[in-house]
Write a structure and sequence with these properties.
This protein is an alpha+beta fold. The protein has 11 helices and 21 strands.
């Protein structure tokens, strides 16, 4: 019996060992992929690009994503640097801009690069890999071809610029020089050299284009009213006062010159305009919007020659002496003359005792304007025509009704700013004379608290 109990553990141990042998599975062998998947290839004759994409995350376009990643990886191997003799090095000393430009060159390279070849591709259940390479020798050949095309295009624009310059069309000449610069822009970090057509000496093309542009700008002059300008608050400025003329060499008028007018006392505070055939520009300011003194600045609109948001614009503008001129400007309060025709019951009173004139003068001052007695010195005239008539008696109370009109005009042009009917204003008292006086009291309130404040809102642009 003891022997039986001793044999039980041995039997159980044997049974467990037998079970383990039956359930044990062979280990799964994972394919690590080809050598280029495991370790990045190194080849002194080629730029390498390896792209990978997760098939589960991108089930429909994993192949395209991997190809795009491979191309970007290939481009990142291409060294892009700013040569010391390049135009970019002369234009810019800020590291941040240089880095942005180089990144832009890499992006353009990714979009224009060609002649790369697919070496291999590999995939497993979860990942997709692709292997690109580009011959370094072939890349330099393609790059030189692009530079040659850019130089040819730039030289063509320079010829157009020279033709326009001979015809004294300086703005068109400048525009062609900008196009020449834009053709060279992808290679501003390269010291591109060409032969001088006159001397045969080598010269840096980018530098020549920049010098030509600077010389053109120095030949353009902007002139205008040399006296200090006086404008009236709230009133449209006389366009002839703010006009300028743009001329080139030999005082020849320059047409279609884009200009910017800037002044914080005017509305709008910035106006863009082009010169006419005679070189004259007249800005369309709507009104003088603030009182005070300032300078009106007029300058050539350099942004008009570049695309909106072009990163090269701010860089180049610092290198140019932009044609400009400035004028002293004074904006004063409006001078208002009063033309009051007050009748009472059809008769002009011997002496005006209504108080309308003094009330208007106080209201003008309170609303930021000046009273001017001389019509020839005024900017605005307020005309009031009023008359009272008897409207009947009831239980000892007499009613007078005032009728008329208030008109506010510009003295210079007669343009009506405000027009108000005065019909139906009533006055009631113990006799017609006092009833008429009451009607005029109501008229005074209407002019002082309604008509003149309306004029103020009009001048404020409301």
């Amino acid at each position: 019996m003891k022997l039986f109990y001793l044999l039980i553990p041995i039997f159980l141990l044997t049974a467990c060992t037998s079970t383990q042998k039956v359930t044990q599975q062979p280990e799964e062998i994972v394919d690590p992929g080809p050598e280029w998947v495991q370790r990045r290839p190194i080849d002194t004759d080629y730029y390498i690009g390896i792209g990978r994409s997760n098939k589960k995350i991108n089930p429909s376009d994993y192949a395209q994503i991997a190809k795009r990643n491979a191309l970007q990886d290939l481009v990142s191997e291409i060294e892009v640097k700013v040569e010391s003799n390049s135009l970019l090095k002369q234009l810019e000393t800020q590291t941040s801009f240089e880095e942005r430009f180089l990144q832009s060159v890499r992006v353009q390279s990714a979009a224009t690069i060609s002649d790369y070849e697919q070496v291999d591709q590999w995939e497993d259940e979860g990942q997709y890999y692709i292997y690109y390479r580009l011959s370094k020798k072939r890349y330099l050949e393609l790059k030189q071809q692009r530079i040659d095309r850019a130089v040819k295009q730039a030289q063509s624009h320079r010829q157009d610029a020279a033709t326009a310059r001979r015809n004294q069309e300086l703005v068109q000449s400048f525009r062609s020089q900008v196009l020449a610069f834009k053709a060279l822009e992808p290679f501003l970090n390269e010291p591109i050299m060409v032969d001088d057509p006159q001397t045969g000496e080598k010269q840096y093309l980018g530098n020549v284009v920049m010098q030509d542009m600077k010389q053109l700008l120095r030949s353009i002059k902007i002139t205008g009213n040399q006296k200090a300008m006086e404008l009236t608050y709230g009133i449209v400025p006389d366009r002839e006062l703010t006009q300028v003329k743009v001329t080139g060499e030999g005082e020849k008028p320059q047409n279609q010159v884009p200009l910017i007018y800037d002044c914080n006392l005017l509305y709008p505070d910035r106006v863009k305009v082009e010169t006419r055939f005679d070189g004259v520009a007249m800005p369309g300011f709507k009104r003088a919007s603030r009182r005070g003194t300032a300078q009106l600045e007029v300058r050539m609109d350099m942004q008009a020659f570049f695309a909106k948001g072009d990163p090269m614009y701010k860089l180049m503008i610092r290198s140019f002496d932009v044609p400009e001129c400035r004028f002293d400007l004074v904006v004063r309060s409006p001078r208002v003359q009063l033309n009051l025709q007050e009748k009472k019951f059809g008769q002009m009173p011997v002496q005006n005792t209504s108080g309308l004139r003094s009330a208007c003068q106080k209201s003008l001052i309170g609303n930021g304007m000046q009273y001017e007695a001389d019509i020839n010195k005024s900017d605005i005239v307020i005309e009031v025509q009023a008359d009272t008539r008897e409207a009947g008696e009831f239980q000892g109370l007499y009613t007078a009704i005032l009728e008329g009109e208030a008109t506010v005009k510009l003295t210079s042009t007669g343009e009506v700013l405000v027009k108000e009917s005065l019909n139906g204003i009533k006055g009631v008292d113990l006799d017609y004379t006092r009833a008429g006086d009451k009607a005029y009291d109501a008229l005074i309130k209407k002019i002082a608290y309604e008509v003149i404040p309306r004029l103020k809102r009009k001048l404020n642009g409301n």
